[in-house]
Amino acid sequence: MKTLKLSALPLMISSALFITQVFASQNIFITGEIKASDSQIFFAPQSDTWRIQVEWMLPEGEIAKPGDVVVVFEGGSIASTIEQDEVSLNTAQDELKRQQNKGKQAILEAEFALTRADLLLEKAKIDAAVPKSHLSAFDYEENQLKLEQAVIQKHKAKASLAEAKTTAQVNIRKQEIEIEHLQINLKENRERLQKLTHKATNQGPILYGNHPWYGSKLFSGVTAQPGWKIAEIPAMTGLYLEAWVHEIDHKHLKREQTMSLTLDAYQDTPLTTKLSDLSTQPEERKEWGKDAYYRAVFEFDDTQQLKILPGMTGRVVVQGGNNE
Q1: What angle do CA 232, 234, 236 make, to 5 degrees?
Q2: What is the annotated signal peptide range for this record (predicted)?
Q3: Which residues on neighbouring strands pair with residue 242, listed in sequence order?
């Protein structure tokens, strides 16, 4: 029995060495997605509610040109508010004209009353100037009383004219402020409605964003929350592969390291890639669990003149790493 145990020991050691060598020679495969260094990204805007619907999008993959409409968000509530604002503004402008005419009429009437009071005062002065010796005591005292009354009436007419002018100015100014307020609201709502229509500023293929919870592609008609990435138009230059490296494999990567890249669309045409950037702080990827991942950027030269588009996926092979 002892002999059998001793003879089995070299076989066990040999097997262990073989297994270690197999694991040591394994490669690390890192998958990623082609991205562009310069992209126009379309985000879901703020709305009156906490969600907003994507009403229409340019079909994915189509080439958008500067000025083309790319994404349109639902703006029915804003459009309804604009209609109400327009009606309110027209009503307020009509009311302003009415207040202006009313003020002019009141001022004209007050000016006429003041002119009449002036004439009555002048007449009263003439009557009161007649000497007492030429009139009876009753007539003389009556003329003096009429003069005092005419003076009082003139003061009242002047006060009424000032009041009519002030009232007209106040009413007109209040209405002008109301119109200015409605115009500001109308302008803001029109700008908000205009912002719901997003246009391209550069040329390139439109790519739909992914649902932040489920990872599925977004689509026309989807209901999104403000800040969600709905779509993007990447530039066709400065392409790179972005990958997220598990914390276990992070130690096997170094910047400027040269590796092999195979795009899923071109399996038979591998490319040479270089690790240009590797984050120093890991991040959690909620859709992948609680493990930590490092962001890695791989640059490549398309010497084969392949038609590489953002959104394509590929695989980087790290030679000789221990894939744990």
Answers
A1: 160
A2: 1-24
A3: 33, 297
